[in-house]
Amino acid sequence: MSQWNQIQQLETKFLEQIDQIYDDKFPMEVRHLLAQWIENQDWESAYNNEPMATILLQNLLIKLDEHLDRVSQEKNLLLVHNLKRIRKMLQGKYHNNPVHVAVVVSNCLREERRILASANMPVQGPLEKSLQNNLDSERQRKVEHKASTIKNSTQMTEQDVKYLEDLQEEFDFRYKTMHSIEQNEKNSAAMKQEMLMLQEILNTLDYRRKEVLGKMAQIIKEVEAFVNNMLMEELLDWKRRQQIACIGGPLHSGLDQLQNCFTLLAESLFQIKRQLEKLDELLVKLTYDGDPIALQRPHLLERVNFLLYSLFQSSFIVERQPCMPTHPQRPLVLKTLIQFTVKLRLLIKLPELNYQIRVKATIDKNASTISNRRFVLCGTHVKAMNMDESENGSLSVEFRHLQPKEMKACAGNKGNEGPQMVTEELHSITFETQVCLYGLTIDLETGSLPVVMISNVSQLPNAWASIIWYNLSTNESQNLAFFNNPPSVGLSQVLEVLSWQFSSYIGRGLNSDQLGMLAEKLTGQQVIYTEHHISWSKFCKEHLPGKSFTFWAWLEAILELIKKHILPLWIDGCIMGFVSKEKERSLLKDKMPGTFLLRFSESNLGGITFTWVSQSENGEVDFHSVEPYNKGRLTALPFADILRDYKVITEDNVPENPLKYLYPDIPKDTAFGRHYSSQPSEVPRPTEGGTTGYVPSVFIPVSKILNDSTDPPSPSDLLPMSPSVYAVLREHLSPTVMETAMSSPYSTD
């Protein structure tokens, strides 16, 4: 079943998450119409291959044209109109940057896999549960309702000010009329009556002025309480969700709702500010002893201006954290002289600000003496915010061509460029701008989450571990000294984030049994998750007992192995993967002979092995494990084909395939059939090989079971390999990989 078909069968809450993935960058209509074709393309390989990305974009447009031709014949006017619009938009947006469409589509497919994984594994960990609590829809409704209520109250005071203005005009007219009357008429009864009326109007004016100012003061008080409590809490929750999403956690949303609240409050405060200015005009025309406008207006205006300053400063956020397009699943890790993207947003959406705010990006602006390394940003580092480039019309700006470059050290030193860069050093990218609106000038500044700088892709795994640990351990946005004393983290949270690495990076998370094995690997014992904590050193610095690598290096190598060589098998759930040798034997011992399972090597980086159970003549159960397959051997032959064609030679030299059932009892061809790259290999007769009479060669994995498993195999134990096959392998594989592939197939792993 295609990925898109699986998605359409999800529950509503997951479909809502899918809806958040698609926008004008890549409309859902295209995903639906070209579902199978899109899933069959290698979008990720096009990240660094512009010709390939160009071909993919051209083929995408051709496919859309084919659909256009079909629906045109059906005379479906609406669909034809939408498809034409979408095609024009895609061509215009990506014609000059085809690599970007590969990044966008790949990200969409990856997010789909993550949501599918979440739906298939509904058990939530402590982090996700806390995030879910923060996403309480009832609370969000209350926040939006409160912002709307404040806006309505401000509109009502607008009417009050208008009434006050009309009343004062009436007073002015009557007062001037009275003064124009002849002196001999001023003592008449009518004049005395008019004097009483003027006094009554003045009393009403005084009352109304106090009433309007009281209402304004109440609105300002409500805004203060709302901003300091509910709104800031929502914003901090969103920022925490963004942190967690950066390290593979659930999709974060709610920014549009926050923008609506921020905008309503800003509009309300500006409206109050204009109302206070109107009162000042009324004050100039008429004042008196104890005038409430003269007494209260300056203080109210000061509070309004302060709230506007605070609101604007809080609304300037990093909507999308710094990320290299070549590594979309590893945000906040930046490589020197490689472009990265970052997106800023002002949550106060006012038309007057469109193209009026210019944002400047700098790096290490507020750096202390924590690190002697300094960087500068190359490329376009000043851009204007606008509402045109954003898919939802928000006021935002996206920097797409920034490059970090390390400054050379003083005193003739060469600086720190090179593989020795410390991947625990944190740096920050700062963004500055200024808002000038309605007589206010407000300086704004915000910063990205801490980033790790690398100069070689070999540093990326450890740099990513630093990003994981920081964002898992703290909700601080700018603690650049964090790794001077990194805190321990609860084991249950660490395991949850590790599962996210698998679901976000390769589309399928880890179940409780797999996480249990990782817990034992981290702690060296069976533990109660809620009572154990893991240190940063244990996670990424200390070698595993008896090994030459750390826990994180071991896990990262497995992620890369799955991603590049066995991804379909992992997504289908064919690989148990994380299971100890002891657990493996307890699972297989009572199973039918030929039952096997797949697990990752514990002694080799990036290796996978399979173990099967057999029964000897005396009824004893035997277990057999092959030497782990690594990326070199899996490049030569797909793993599913290895499992299909694998043979062992017993003492009577009869080759047979011992692999019959994938644990617990799934026939091998049922489990792996759709992943075979070709039909089972058959060796034809020489006459079928053509006029030369040669027998076509095939590459079949073969092992020989020895009487004494400790004896090394001799050359006679291995089947001969045809010269042509050997030549092809030697051309594509390094001597080291060739030696590994041809060495003993058995291991104690």
TrEMBL record:
Report any Pfam family annotated for this entry: SH2
Q: Kindly indicate whether the keyword Ubl conjugation belongs to this entry.
A: yes
Instruction: Name the Gene Ontology molecular function terms of this record.
Output: DNA-binding transcription factor activity, RNA polymerase II-specific; identical protein binding; RNA polymerase II cis-regulatory region sequence-specific DNA binding
Location within or outside the cell: Cytoplasm; Nucleus
Q: What is this protein called?
A: Signal transducer and activator of transcription
One cellular component term from this protein's GO annotations in UniProt: cytoplasm
Instruction: Please give the family membership noted in the entry.
Output: Belongs to the transcription factor STAT family.
Tell me which UniProt keywords the record has, alphabetically: Acetylation, Activator, ADP-ribosylation, Coiled coil, Cytoplasm, DNA-binding, Isopeptide bond, Methylation, Nucleus, Phosphoprotein, SH2 domain, Transcription, Transcription regulation, Ubl conjugation
User: Where is each SH2 domain found?
Assistant: 570-672
Question: Domain of life, per the record?
Answer: Eukaryota
Q: Name one GO biological process term.
A: response to interleukin-6
Predominant location: cytoplasm
